[in-house]
Each structure stands twice: as structure tokens, then as C-alpha cells.
From TrEMBL:
Gene3D superfamilies: Histidine kinase-like ATPase, C-terminal domain (3.30.565.10). This is Anti-sigma regulatory factor. InterPro entries: HATPase_C_sf. It comes from the Bacteria.
């Protein structure tokens, strides 16, 4: 059984934060994948780590797009620390929307490709947060 990792890479004033907002449409996910890859490369992630993170962000966004309200926008917040990249994606949802269960294949993908993943649904908005710590050396 894998150890449980909690989302503890909190940003500080000295950390870099990038905010992107795109229409909640699959055609715009390439923008978020590219931003993810660029920021992970800045942290000197290995190529396979970058690709894993791109896939995880894509999967998280796909989960959110399935429950997004009409004409919604997908908000993405990237927080860069010395050793980790935290990606938080959120979208306003349709009434009664629910994210897939943590036992679903989609969640298995997220937890396999990142250090930690969590989801919240509050006040008509769903958020998925992904934390990836760099495992390779600089």
C-alpha cells in the first residue's frame, strides 16, 4: 500500500504563482498542458515527470469539464516552489454535479501521476488540486 501524501506545499510570498482562465471547453486544454509543461521544466522536472503532470492536468480538467455549467470558465492556478508544482483547477458546476468517486479510474490516474491529489466541491464550484514534487536531481 502506497504511503498517503497530503497537499502541504503551501505557497509563500516569494513563490511564483501563475493564474490562467480559459473557457471550459476541451479545445483550450492545450493551453493548460503547455503552461504545465513550461512550469515543470522551470523546476527541472525530468521529461517523464513533465509528461505525467501534463496527463494529470488534462485528466483533472476533463473531470471538471464534465460537470461545468454553461458558458463556464476554467480557472487554473499554478504555484511554483523550490521543489514542487501545485496545480489547482476549478470550475463553476451545474446544480447537483458530482466529481467521480475516489475509487474511479480517473482518480487512480491522478494519484498515480502526482504526489497527491484532492478534490472539493463547495458553493457551486468544483476544484481539483494536484501536487507534484520533483523526484529527479537538478
Amino acid at each position: 500500500m502506497a504511503p498517503v501524501t497530503y497537499l502541504t506545499a503551501q505557497t509563500t510570498i516569494d513563490d511564483d504563482v501563475v493564474l490562467l482562465t480559459v473557457p471550459a471547453d476541451g479545445g483550450y486544454l492545450g493551453v493548460l498542458r503547455t503552461a504545465t509543461a513550461g512550469l515543470a521544466a522551470r523546476l527541472h522536472f525530468a521529461l517523464d515527470e513533465i509528461e505525467d503532470l501534463r496527463i494529470a492536468v488534462d485528466e483533472a480538467c476533463a473531470m471538471l469539464l464534465a460537470i461545468a455549467g454553461p458558458d463556464a470558465e476554467l480557472d487554473c492556478r499554478f504555484a511554483v516552489t523550490d521543489e514542487a508544482l501545485t496545480v489547482e483547477v476549478s470550475v463553476p458546476t451545474v446544480s447537483g454535479a458530482r466529481l467521480p468517486a475516489e475509487s474511479s479510474f480517473a482518480w487512480k490516474v491522478l494519484t498515480a501521476l502526482t504526489t497527491a491529489a484532492e478534490a472539493t466541491t463547495r458553493d457551486g464550484r468544483a476544484t481539483i488540486t494536484l501536487l507534484t514534487r520533483r523526484v529527479s536531481g537538478i
